[in-house]
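Severity: low
Component: inverse-folding endpoint
Summary: output formatting inconsistent between runs
Steps to reproduce: submit the following structure tokens with default settings.
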């Protein structure tokens, strides 16, 4: 790509990769970004110049969005990807839109970089690389500023979409013969031969149940796990969320608010045992007795997010995990320490639970949260 004047290569291979990465981040966030739109975006930025952030914003908005419903997500991904501080035109967002966290792209002298397109491209590329590095960072070791930036990136995560076969068959052009509809057709034709009717069983969304440990040992990860839960709850797939500590709390209703900050604040006000002790066995028993056995866990993908530290006896936890595994379609255990070097699953809660789990995965970075969605979808 070259600049609009054509007298120098303002954009090189690295900026091209940066712009394509932004387009693919939009696709991951749910926008219908096709290869034709990507090519149009690159052409538009080459025309206006990457050094002009305002023009870059509008070039992407004109070529990569398909309608007004895409603009809010476009703004969020643009901010997370380029982290620009300069003001740019925005479409008024709904009243409950979360505050956008922005970072500074000005140089040490306070210049905006408009006079040097190449320097500006290098700055944006470096910032985008920092955002990608942030996706790999352990959320438990982040600073307050890093967590604030990370909060704006949860909207780009994939959502799980597990499906199951529907119990009823529906009319279809091919599949298995539908004798009743075929007979009715023949009766309407007074017994004369009629076209055969076919039916097939479709698919329906499979329920996902999240059990999030909010005890003291999980305090550095609980906020991020609940942000993931909020992102899933607002995605269309039936998702139920509970927190576990010294007691069990149903927080799905609080997390249904569109604004993530409001939703987490409401969930925090609902949970009475935040950063307390851990009684996983008692919490699981309460869930199964009140909700799971009655149908919520039957055929569902149940995701347990905990480090496995059990304050009570592990015998109860083992019994309840066995009971949960017999009801659920699949049981996935998420441990924030699973992906760290040197980790061994030696905690008593983990030892007695693993025989009743179908998957044991990590959950400490934004990348592992994306991988978790894939594991749940395969369920």
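Observed output (run 2 of 3):
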């Amino acid at each position: 790509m070259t600049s609009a004047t054509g007298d120098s290569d303002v954009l090189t291979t690295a900026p091209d990769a940066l712009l394509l990465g932004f387009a693919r981040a939009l696709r991951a966030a749910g926008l219908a970004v096709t290869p034709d739109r990507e090519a149009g975006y690159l052409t538009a930025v080459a025309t206006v110049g990457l050094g002009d952030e305002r023009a870059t914003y509008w070039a992407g908005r004109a070529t990569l969005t398909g309608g007004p419903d895409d603009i809010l997500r476009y703004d969020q991904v643009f901010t997370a990807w380029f982290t620009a501080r300069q003001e740019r035109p925005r479409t008024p967002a709904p009243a409950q839109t979360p505050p956008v966290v922005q970072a500074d792209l000005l140089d040490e002298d306070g210049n905006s970089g408009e006079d040097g397109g190449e320097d500006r491209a290098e700055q944006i590329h470096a910032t985008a690389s920092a955002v990608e590095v942030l996706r790999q960072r352990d959320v438990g070791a982040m600073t307050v500023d890093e967590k604030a930036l990370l909060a704006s990136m949860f909207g780009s995560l994939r959502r799980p979409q597990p499906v199951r076969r529907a119990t009823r068959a529906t009319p279809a052009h091919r599949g298995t013969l539908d004798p009743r509809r075929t007979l009715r057709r023949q009766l309407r034709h007074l017994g004369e031969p009629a076209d055969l009717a076919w039916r097939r069983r479709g698919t329906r969304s499979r329920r996902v149940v999240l059990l999030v440990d909010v005890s003291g040992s999980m305090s550095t990860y609980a906020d991020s796990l609940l942000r993931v839960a909020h992102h899933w709850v607002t995605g269309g797939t039936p998702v139920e969320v509970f927190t576990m500590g010294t007691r069990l709390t149903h927080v799905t209703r609080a997390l249904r608010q569109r604004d993530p900050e409001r939703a987490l604040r409401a969930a925090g006000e609902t949970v009475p045992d935040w950063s307390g002790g851990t009684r996983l066995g008692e919490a699981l028993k309460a869930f199964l007795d009140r909700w799971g056995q009655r149908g919520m866990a039957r055929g569902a993908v149940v995701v347990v997010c905990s480090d496995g530290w059990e304050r009570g006896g592990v015998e109860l936890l083992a019994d309840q995990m066995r009971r949960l595994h017999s009801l659920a379609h699949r049981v996935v255990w998420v441990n924030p320490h699973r992906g760290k070097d040197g980790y061994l699953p030696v905690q008593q809660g983990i030892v007695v639970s693993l025989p009743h789990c179908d998957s044991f995965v990590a959950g400490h970075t934004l990348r592992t949260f994306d991988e978790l969605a894939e594991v749940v979808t395969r369920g």
